[in-house]
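Recall that a protein's primary structure is simply its ordered list of amino acids. Everything else, from secondary elements to tertiary packing, is in principle encoded there. The following example makes that idea concrete.
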Amino acid sequence: MENDHHKGLARHPCGECCTKLVNVGVAFGGQRILEDVSLHLHCGELTTLVGPNGAGKSTLLRTLLGEVPHTGEIHFLPVFGHGREDAPAIGYVPQFLEFDRFSPISVQDAFSSVLSRWPVVLWHRRRDRATAREALEAVEAGHLCDRKLGELSGGELQRVLLALSLTPVPNLLLLDEPVSGIDLPGRELFYRTVSDLRRRFDLSILMVSHDLAGVAAVSDRVIFLDHRIVASGTPAEVIAHPEVRRTFGLDVPPPPPQTAS
């Protein structure tokens, strides 16, 4: 029998994690950052936001997190089928994590601080270690459990943050440029892991990225955002949009070949 209360990393039933935005707008100091943004984030679907710098992509994630005031409406389907709208569990992976890289804090310490009220300097409960190991193995990082955070590469750290965001499994997972500064093999592993997670746990995932080519291979849907939704559809449909091609330089002819002097 499937667990429908999100304990550990149990898969939750499809239909619990749909999110609707209706004419959402955000303004700071009189400047419109988002305007009339309407979209539906489905469970089991990986949606990627692309667009130029300053287009409002990270602001949209912060709006979903409840960190900024907005106009319009945001609706969450009932989480546990109570027939009413409930606040969902939201997982979040930031672009950067600022911390002292010389600190002796380990990956297990980070998990224990989230899972327990006991000071992590005293001991790690056996069940916390088991939960941490399970979450890390879900993102191909089980071997990192006892490593110091400051010793991790950029890709390893992002997978640890991804594992933390799955503890417990959320209804909605937000990823803000999670592969920024990570090398190509690390990006490919991260994308593959996220793509697998959305199928295994029916996750509704919204990811911000500048890596149009990388996300096209794993996304169910791509949204080109420039303060408003300019294009939305399959990766192929959005890449074919004239404004997307212009923004990403896809129609710029290659430089002429150099001739030997």
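Helices lie at 57-64, 107-115, 126-138, 154-165, 184-200, 212-216, 235-239, 242-247. DSSP finds eight helices and nine strands in the chain.
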